[in-house]
Structure formats: C-alpha cells, structure tokens
Amino acid sequence: MRVLIASDKFKGSLTAVEVAEHVGAGLRRAAPGTEVVALPVADGGDGTVDAAVAAGFERREVPVTGPAGRPVRAAYALRRADGTAVVEMAEASGLRYGAGAPLTATTYGTGELVRAALDAGARTVVLGVGGSATTDGGAGMLTALGARFLDAGGRPVGPGGAGLAGLVTADLSGLDPRLRGTAVVLASDVDNPLTGPRGAAVVYGPQKGASPEDVAVLDAALAHYARVLDGAGGADAPGAGAAGGVGYGALVGLGATFRLGIEVMLDVLGFARAVAGCRLVITGEGSLDGQTLHGKAPVGVAAAARAAGAEVVAVCGRLAVAPAALAGAGISRAYALAELEPDAARCMAHAGPLLERIAESIARDFLG
C-alpha cells in the first residue's frame, strides 16, 4: 500500500512539511503496513522555497532589500544538478515584513534574489509570486537587475508604485546579460491583468494597506508605467497583475513564461515520480474554498494524481466547498479539522494532533 501526501501549508498554523509529518504519523498509526511518501507542495506563494528544499534543493540565504527599504535575509532554493533555482518573491518582498507602505513598497529585493540565483549558476529561474507587500509593477525587481526608470530630469523615479507616475524613460538595456541565457518561469495562481477592475491595485492593493485613494493612484501609475515600458502591450497578459504587477515586470522585462504555480512546482518537485504506484493521494490547504477551485495547489495536485490513476482526498482546516464541486475537481472527499474542533483559535493551536486524527479516519475509510 503506497500513499502520497502532497499538501500545501495550513497558513498561520502548519507548514506543508509539518502537514505531511502529521498526516503521515496518523496513517502509520492506523495502517502500519502503509508506505507513506511525503511531497510537500506550494503554488508559488509563501512556502514555495520550503517545498523545494524538502524535495532536495539546497537552501541559500542572502541579504536583500525588504519592501520598506530595510535590509532583510531571504532564501531561495537551488538544484545544482540542472541549474534550477526557485525564487519566492514573498521571501524578499512579502507581507511578512508588514503592509504599511502601499505607495512606496518595492520589489528591489526580489531582483536581488534573482541576481543571487544567477551568481550561483542558475540557468532556469522559477519565480514564485504571491503574498507580496508591493504594487510597483516589478519596477524595483528590474532596477536591481540593471534597468533604469527615470523622470523628466533624468533622475531615478521614487520607489514603489506611486513613483511610477513620474516615469518618462524606461531603459532595459542594462539588464543583467545572463538573463538572455536564462529561462524564467512566472509561477502564479492568479491570471489578473496589470490594471483595471481586475488589476493589481484594485484587487490586491487593499490587502497591502492601500486606501481607495491609494488604489486610484497606483492603478493610474501602473497604467502609465505600462505605456512607457512597452506601449501597454503586456498589461493584459495573464499573470501580469500577479503580486502587485511583478508578473508584468517578469513577462515584459525578463521574457518570462507564465504558468500556473502548482503545475510548475509539481514538475520541479518531481510529482510524477512520487505518485508512481500510489493508490491514494492526500492533498490539502488551510481553507478549501471557492478560491481553491481556481488554480490553487489542491486542484492541481488532484488533476495530476487522477491522471496517474490515484484516488484523491483532501485535508483542510476549514471546508467551504460543496461535495459536488470537490468531485468536479477530482477530489473524492475532504476532511476538515473544524469538524473535530469548531473553535477556530483552538483548532489552529492544535492543528497537528487534530490532523493526525483526521489521517486515522482516512486510513479507515480508504486503506482498510
């Protein structure tokens, strides 16, 4: 009996690695003969580097510039055998560093992370985006890699999205020449355009502390930035609005290819090898809800697992998807910790032991 655990994190409670550990413990206790294979996954946002490291990548830490301009330490993951680097934007420019500067927060540190990966010999860079504190269209990232964004006086524009309102000249000729020989993959779970009602500022700006007035400023500045940079040709491309528009910067400035984050990560992490011979795959994330059905990790795992002939169940903290919708996504059944502990605070505090009890139930229901 072979079971694969391929779950994302339970945000604010358990990392993807910890989810796999607790599920595995419960399965082994209830079904001692079961071979349990753990492959923590991520969709490009928080936890992407950790998932890569758990799959055998080398963790590298470097000092970079945080979104507010202060120094922070950030990690990327490197597989030296084939020169693949996984760069998680949230490590350098994420909300983990606070959301108090929506107009001036910069992605400069993300560019520094990409440059560190190039210094280490990366030939493929998977740029996982999500959980950002920024709305600068990736201008900071491109600046760190050698681009110049200048105002009417020939001076660099200010940091963040608001500074782009004064942009007159965008010069990409100084971008790191190593990028020309590097495949950059934009890994995201959203396909929003850069601007407009579904754009980076309108949809995600409030999460980063932007007021309605700030949102208007940022949306207009991003539209102006796109006109100057490439005539707005890439502003409507899928993924351009990801993570405050860093997707746009990657697509237009770095020549990146957009792919759903979970699909990229399953390839990078070796899901096809891990799922071979498995009868059951257990996936999940903290909240299984409507967003899950639109490119999040559990749905991507379910599609790949079903294609390999395995049945799929999900674990989660909170379940807000009807059984029919789950079945349509290829998930036979979902088990929620909230069913065992309805108090949210206690549920999160004791997520590990609760998850082990859930795993025991899965073993009885599917491995008996």
List keywords for this structure.
alpha/beta; six-stranded mixed β-sheet; Rossmann fold; elongated; 368 residues; 15 helices; five-stranded parallel β-sheet; Glycerate kinase, domain 2
Structure description:
With 368 residues, this protein is of the alpha/beta class. The protein folds into two domains: 135 residues, Glycerate kinase, domain 1 (Rossmann fold), CATH 3.40.50; 215 residues, Glycerate kinase, domain 2, CATH 3.90.1510.10. It is 38% helix and 20% strand. It contains 15 helices and 13 strands. Helix 1 packs across helix 15 and helix 10 crosses helix 12. The longest helix has 19 residues. The model has no long low-confidence stretch (mean pLDDT 96).
Residue windows where pLDDT falls under 50 for at least 5 positions? none
- Number-wise, the strands total 13
Summarize the biggest pleated sheet.
Answer: 6 strands, mixed
For the CA atoms, what is the radius of gyration?
21 Å
CATH architecture of the largest domain: Alpha-Beta Complex
- SS class: alpha/beta
CATH superfamily of the largest domain: Glycerate kinase, domain 2
CATH fold name of the largest domain: Glycerate kinase, domain 2
User: Rough shape?
Assistant: elongated
Report the portion of residues in β strands: 15-25%
How are the strands of the largest sheet arranged?
3-4-5-6-9-10
What is the total number of structural domains? 2
* Distance between the amino and carboxyl termini: 10 Å
